[in-house]
Structure formats: C-alpha cells, structure tokens
Amino acid sequence: MHTTTSHASENKKRNGEHILINMTYIARNVDLDSGIELTRALEYWRRYFEENGIVSALVISEGYFVQSFQGTRPAISTALHKIFDEHPTIFPNIINIEEIESRQWDGFLIKHLTSSNEDELYALKNFSTGADYNPYLMRSSQIENFLHEIFADQKKL
Fold this sequence. Notes:
alpha+beta
C-alpha cells in the first residue's frame, strides 16, 4: 500500500501538481453581451475553476476583461487551453505567467467597474494610460498593480 501511495505522489510531481502558477491575461469582450450570456459564462467558469482548485480575480470594464488566475501548473494549462478553445473571439493576450508560493485570491472574485464608484474611478485613472481605459495599452506591471489595487480588500491574508 505504501508503494502505491509513493508511486502516485511521484506521478503528481512529474505532472507539476506541486507547483502553483499565477497567470494573468487581458481580453476584449466581443461576443458576450453584458446580460444573461455573460452571467451564464461567468457562472460556468466559476464552477469550473472551483472544481479544478483554481482561484481567480476578474475585472470587467468597458468591454475588457483583466483576469488573474492561480492554481497548479496542469490546472492552469488546461484552463488556458479551454479558454482559448471555447472563446476564440475574446482575443486573449497573456501578460504574465509566474510560479507563486501560495494563492493570493480567495475563490472566484469579480468586479464590474463603472465610473460612478469613486475608488474604481481612482484606480482607472491611476493605472490606465491615456484618456480612456484600455488594458491593451498598459504595461504588465500596471495591470498586476491594477488587479491588486482593485481586490486589495479581498485578498487572502
């Protein structure tokens, strides 16, 4: 029995399950409206991430997605392939992939930004480039800082 457990543990390490990854991407929302389609898609991904041990922070604003998700190397690789395969029209751009020691987010966090909220307006003004919010014009460090600022009160401690 001990050799079976040891063998299963070795197989896990061979596939990278012991390594946590943070992957951040930006995308344009060109095929999902802001209503029921988007709500269904978000619920589908929330369940998928939960079932696969992935945590996420997602910002939706002015037709853009900015998302950071964290989990094991195989889980992140599979999720990334699934996103590209199932949503080719969102034109995702990976801006950062790195190994991490622990997950920073807690669950599937979503923030819909609007200019009516003072804090969100502050974040948009301080992390965007130019007059309009467009994550495609932001450097990767700006995007990472933007996510951390938006979800500062919801990070794992």
